[in-house]
Structure formats: structure tokens, C-alpha cells
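Severity: low
Component: inverse-folding endpoint
Summary: output formatting inconsistent between runs
Steps to reproduce: submit the following C-alpha cells with default settings.
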């Protein structure tokens, strides 16, 4: 075996990673097992409610176009945009094309082919006749294109419309699989799934009036990010991590989802939500559970979701959110992002000038079970922070005894395993080594694995992966209702307490846009994330 190399930055590059850096796959005796997915997808029609909106033009349509380019969409696959705005088919095409034309892979010829299967239907949400008209429109499309009666309804609309739309779909028979032809009928519900525990239960009850559980897909795009999916593979397809993955070896865990963007045009929603509802109750909880959950006996949707639910059940309630140790909230003021002066949250369009909505939070969570008892999980997320960064940091415990203390090397840095989710998709392990030379001198080095190193195949973004999974009927990367309710049971009382005036006035700490959050949270942030 050849010795490890040291790269130009002084980092150790072990032999097998060195081979990957050179672009030569190490001969592991096995072919890479990577592909978009197995099997064929049923022909179907994708019906997007809210097709005149932001999510459709920025995420869903580019995802569908990319899937079309990679040949992953079923044949035929019709896409019908639905919204109240009266638009001709051509006007709708123009809007969607504008969103896609800036992509590197935009090709006018391929776009025309894709757009041939793209239709628009203007709807009145209050009118049953309008929904019946949609049903007829879809049947007509089935007749012309042979999509087999399979329907994927995607609710890319404000949450207040989830219930009325699903009820109308039920009333007009579009939720029932036997009635819309012979095909399947599935509904994708965007986040937020409810505003609190009670509304989440009500929404679920309404959905179930028209759809069975296996027809409902509660999306969380974080679960479908490549590097998030990789967490379970790292933990359970390697024998070396799991023995250390517990309170005996792990000191604390940090999970950060930092954003540079502000509230943008979403003040109407964000003023009611704040960072705890927008990022913590869903995305942050999913990241937490992937670190905390026990191994399922098989890699199957229900078994994975069962294990997640067990972890949610072990969340220790936070009874005193006014303690800064438990919860630290902030709100961005004016500042600089990439050298440009940006407004503070209270100056954003649609935000109240005296708003107490938090745009930043650090929360300490404990998981009361055999594996994790006493290990703090620090979750941090905020808008208008210094950079876009999502990562999970596992901080291992100190060595039990420093045998180098007698030669003046008393402090030894702890080992850290960093799972980079975005923008850098990588895994980094830090450890101590001896500096080369005659004297004994320690230095911390890192071993890096870049997720796409040596991989040349197709890559699916989170919305592409989610759409494919819905077409396949695979629920693994979607929320199950028991998980939603357990997370709301944890967050609802906490948020209610925070929202009472006495708490909020005391809790919200201002921070400069472009910083790493409020001044008083800096020591904690550095300790957890070493930014
Ligand atoms: P938009 O605010 O852009 O709304 C989508 C469409 O819904 C609008 O184009 C409008 O279409 C219709 N609409 C808006 N307000 C109303 C209303 N009061 N009554 C009836 N129709 C209305 O939303 P987004 O596209 O940003 O988001 C859609 C859903 O996806 C939301 O639930 C959001 O929380 C969720 N989401 C969005 C993300 C994003 O990045 N945008 C990320 C994650 C989740 P028309 O008037 O033509 O009917
Ligand atoms: C959404 C939140 O769910 O996730 C947004 O509503 C946030 O406020 C976004 O900006 C972050 O997603 P990503 O994939 O850019 O990290």
C-alpha cells in the first residue's frame, strides 16, 4: 500500500482519495451502481395548481424540463398548469420558457419538444363546474395523448388553498382512482403542512376525505437532496461509523442551514411563519432525525419512516424557551451581502415596521433515548447570514487522557466529521497528526471526500428526485402524518410561548445582514460550526 499524500494546502490525502482526485477510480472490484432509477414510469399527467407562481417557474418547471432532457419522464407525460390568472397556452409557455431559458442546458429545439406537452387551464377555485371542466380537459388530454388516466396533482399554491382544492378534487371524482379512468391519482402537498398541531390535523382530515394515505405525498425538498439521502448510506453502509455513533463518543452535534437571501417577496407567508415554522419544524427536523434515528431493518419507505418517528417521539420538550441556552432568536437588520447594501427585515415589502418575527434561531435539542441521552443537538438557521451553508457537524469527545501534556501539548483538538449538504457537497473528517520534523508537534488535518468526485453520470436535483418518487409511488422521502404531528407537538407549545409578547420582546436579538447572527450568539455559533 502506498503512503498517504499531503496536498498543496497541507491536507492529508489518503491513498484511495488520491486516486479519485487524479480521476482514476480505485479498483474495488465492483462496478459503480449509479443510475437515475430502475424500471419504467407509467404515462401520466402532472397537474400543477398555482402554475402562475414562483415555485412553479423557479423549481417545478425547470425540474420537469431537466427530467425531459435526461429522458427520465414517462412517455407520454403531459403537464397542465392550473391557476386563476387567465392565460393562453402560448402565454403560459412564454412564462415558463423565461424561467428555463437562463439555464445552461437550455436548448430551444428541446424546449419546443417539451412544451408540446405543456397545457394551461384557468380555474375558479370556488366553482365546482370549473373543476368539472378541468376533469373534462384532462380526459380529453388522455384521449389525445394516451396518458392512461394517471394523475399527479401538485399543490403549489398558498396553504389556505390546500383544503378547498383537495375537497373539489374529491367532489369531482378526480381523487378516486376507479373514477378517473383506470389510472392512479396522487396528490403532492407543499410545505408548510399546517400552521400548528391543530391545523395540521385538520388539513390531514380534509385530505383523507378525498385521498387515501398512499395517495398523499407531503413534500420536504431537503429530504431529496443528494447529500441528505447520503447520510443514511454513510451511517449504515459503513461498519466504521456506527460503533462510535452514540453518547459514549459524540460530544455534541451541530446542524446549520444558513441562507444569504432575505424574505424576498414572501413576507405575507413569512410574517405568519418565522424561521421556526419555515425551517425548523420541517427541514431541520429531517436533518436531525437522519443523524439520530436507529437503523431500519430494511431500506424501505415505511421502515425508514417508522424509525424517524421513533426519534421524533424521543424529542425532549423545551419547557423554557426564554432561556438563551435553549433557544436564541434573532431578526436581521440592514447590512451588506456581497458588497451590496440590503434592507433590514422590518423594511422589507409587506413586513410590519414593528414586526417581531424571528428570521434566525439557534435551538438546543435533546433526544431522550438510550443512544443520545445528554448529547446536545444544536440547530441553527437564519436568513441574510454571511453565506449559504447547510452542514451537519459531528463533534466527537476529547481523548480521555492527553499523554502529550508532559511535552507541552496539553490541548488536543477533537475529531469532527462534517457532512456538507450545500453549497459544497462533501464529507470531511478532521484528525490530529504529527507535524513532520524532529520535534513532536501536533497539527489538525482534514480528509475530504467531494460527493461528485469521479462521478460523470446524471444528477437529479431535489425537486426532480421528488417528482420521480411521486410518479413511482415511493413515499420514503416524504413526511408521514405521525411524524408531522409529533414535530408540531414539539414546536407548537414552544412557538406559542415565544409568540406571547413578554417572551418575544425579550427574545428577539437584532443582527446585521451579512453576519453570522446576533453578537451574543457568536461564541455558541463558533463552537458549534467553526465558521
Ligand atoms: P405564490 O405566492 O407564488 O403563489 C402561487 C400561485 O397561487 C399564485 O401565482 C397565484 O396564482 C395563486 N395565489 C396566490 N395567492 C392566492 C390567493 N390568496 N388565493 C388564491 N390563489 C392565490 O407561491 P409560491 O409559488 O411561492 O409557493 C407555493 C407553495 O409552495 C406555498 O405553499 C409555499 O409555501 C410552498 N413553497 C414555496 C417555495 C418557494 O421557493 N417558492 C419553497 C417551498 C415551499 P393565481 O392568482 O394565478 O391563481
Ligand atoms: C423553503 C423555505 O422551504 O426552503 C425558504 O420556505 C428557504 O424560506 C428554502 O429559503 C431553502 O431551501 P434551499 O434548498 O435553498 O436550502
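Observed output (run 2 of 3):
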Amino acid at each position: 500500500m502506498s503512503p498517504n499524500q499531503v496536498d498543496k494546502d497541507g491536507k492529508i490525502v489518503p491513498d484511495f482519495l488520491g486516486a479519485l482526485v487524479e480521476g482514476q477510480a480505485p479498483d474495488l472490484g465492483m462496478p459503480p451502481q449509479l443510475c437515475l432509477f430502475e424500471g419504467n414510469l407509467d404515462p401520466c399527467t402532472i397537474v400543477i395548481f398555482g402554475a402562475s407562481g414562483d415555485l412553479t417557474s423557479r423549481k417545478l418547471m425547470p425540474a420537469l424540463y431537466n427530467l425531459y432532457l435526461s429522458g427520465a419522464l414517462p412517455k407520454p407525460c403531459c403537464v397542465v398548469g392550473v391557476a386563476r390568472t387567465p392565460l393562453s397556452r402560448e402565454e403560459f409557455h412564454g412564462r415558463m420558457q423565461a424561467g428555463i431559458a437562463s439555464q445552461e442546458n437550455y436548448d430551444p429545439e428541446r424546449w419546443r419538444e417539451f412544451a408540446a406537452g405543456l397545457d394551461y387551464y384557468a380555474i375558479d377555485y370556488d366553482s365546482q363546474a370549473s373543476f368539472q371542466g378541468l376533469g373534462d380537459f384532462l380526459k380529453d388530454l388522455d384521449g389525445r395523448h394516451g396518458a392512461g388516466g394517471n394523475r399527479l396533482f401538485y399543490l403549489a399554491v398558498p396553504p389556505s388553498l390546500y383544503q378547498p382544492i383537495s375537497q373539489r378534487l374529491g367532489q369531482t371524482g378526480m381523487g378516486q382512482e376507479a373514477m378517473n379512468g383506470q389510472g392512479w391519482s396522487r396528490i403532492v402537498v407543499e410545505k408548510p403542512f399546517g400552521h400548528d398541531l391543530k391545523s395540521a390535523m385538520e388539513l390531514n382530515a380534509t385530505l383523507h376525505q378525498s385521498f387515501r394515505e398512499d395517495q398523499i405525498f407531503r413534500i420536504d425538498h431537503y429530504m431529496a437532496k443528494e447529500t441528505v439521502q447520503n447520510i443514511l448510506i454513510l451511517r449504515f453502509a459503513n461498519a466504521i461509523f456506527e460503533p462510535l455513533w452514540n453518547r459514549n463518543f459524540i460530544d455534541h452535534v451541530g446542524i446549520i442551514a444558513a441562507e444569504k437571501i432575505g424574505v424576498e417577496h414572501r413576507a405575507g407567508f413569512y410574517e405568519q411563519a418565522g424561521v421556526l415554522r419555515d425551517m425548523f419544524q420541517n427541514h431541520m427536523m429531517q436533518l436531525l432525525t437522519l443523524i439520530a434515528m436507529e437503523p431500519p431493518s430494511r431500506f424501505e419507505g415505511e421502515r425508514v419512516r417508522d424509525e424517524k418517528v421513533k426519534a421524533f417521539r424521543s424529542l425532549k420538550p423545551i419547557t423554557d424557551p426564554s432561556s438563551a441556552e435553549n433557544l436564541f432568536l434573532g431578526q436581521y437588520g440592514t447590512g451588506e451581502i456581497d458588497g451590496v447594501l440590503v434592507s433590514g427585515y422590518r423594511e422589507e415589502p409587506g413586513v410590519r415596521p414593528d414586526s417581531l418575527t424571528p428570521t434566525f434561531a439557534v435551538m438546543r435539542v435533546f433526544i431522550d433515548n438510550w443512544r443520545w441521552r445528554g448529547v446536545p443537538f444544536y440547530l441553527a438557521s437564519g436568513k441574510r447570514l454571511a453565506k449559504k451553508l447547510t452542514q451537519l457537524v459531528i463533534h466527537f469527545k476529547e481523548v480521555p487522557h492527553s499523554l502529550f501534556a508532559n511535552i507541552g501539548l496539553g490541548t488536543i483538538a477533537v475529531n469532527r466529521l462534517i457532512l456538507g449538504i450545500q453549497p459544497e457537497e462533501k464529507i470531511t473528517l478532521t484528525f490530529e497528526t504529527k507535524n513532520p520534523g524532529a520535534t513532536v508537534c501536533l497539527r489538525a488535518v482534514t480528509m475530504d471526500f467531494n460527493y461528485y468526485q469521479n462521478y460523470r453520470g446524471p444528477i437529479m436535483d431535489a425537486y426532480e428526485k421528488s417528482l420521480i418518487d411521486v410518479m413511482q409511488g415511493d413515499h420514503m422521502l416524504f413526511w408521514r402524518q405521525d411524524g408531522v404531528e409529533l414535530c408540531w407537538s414539539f414546536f407548537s407549545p414552544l412557538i406559542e410561548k415565544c409568540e406571547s409578547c413578554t417572551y418575544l420582546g425579550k427574545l428577539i436579538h437584532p443582527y446585521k445582514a451579512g453576519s453570522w447572527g446576533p453578537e451574543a450568539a457568536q461564541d455558541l455559533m463558533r463552537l458549534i460550526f467553526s465558521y
